[in-house]
Amino acid sequence: MELKLVAERREGTGKGVARKLRAAGRVPAIVYGRGMEPIPVSVDAKELYHVLHRGGANVLLDLVVDGEPHLALAREVQRDHIHNRFVHVDFLAVSRTEKITVSVPIQVVGESVGVKAGGVLEHHLWEVQAECLPGDVPEVIEVDVSALAVGDSLKVGDLVAPEGVEIVSPPGELVLAVVPPQAREVAAAPAAAEAEAEEAAAAEAAEEGGEGE
Questions:
Q1: Helix, strand or coil for residue 211?
Q2: Is there a contact between 131 and 100 (Cβ–Cβ < 8 Å)?
Q3: pLDDT at 2
Q4: Which residues of the chain fall below pLDDT 50?
């Protein structure tokens, strides 16, 4: 999927300029890439939301800067979650013929037989690094967990990438595991005990502080 996004050059930089742009419904951004000077730009906040919502984080963009097209990815998107707005975007200009490395989310499909038997599916890794041409970047890497029984696990090396995509994360890295319920409870117990100890220590310190006043 390739979506069009129009950008405008911005002359000024700094917090003051950025605040004015955001107040006007625009997002300050930068376009950079191999063999080019970085270009400070701004994009419409609503249009940016639309393309990212429709195409996903790795959507290939036809980024038009003052009439000049650039094939690009939104490499880094900074958000202000409190005010629910974009803060800044780094656009990476790419070539259709040169491979890039991107982070691709892992999507679980199916229901594990181990979970049906009472086990718990633990997620250890939510995304992997993949290398491919810009036009081959997948939205997700699907993992079918249907056959996983209690005690089974999946590592990066077990994942199947789409054609033209190579997963470059360490193959031995754990992605998913189906564990017995009691194993999950035992693992959680030390953390709960530690939290209770910290709360008790904080309460004791507060009492001592109150007595000192």
A1: helix
A2: yes
A3: 87
A4: 205-213
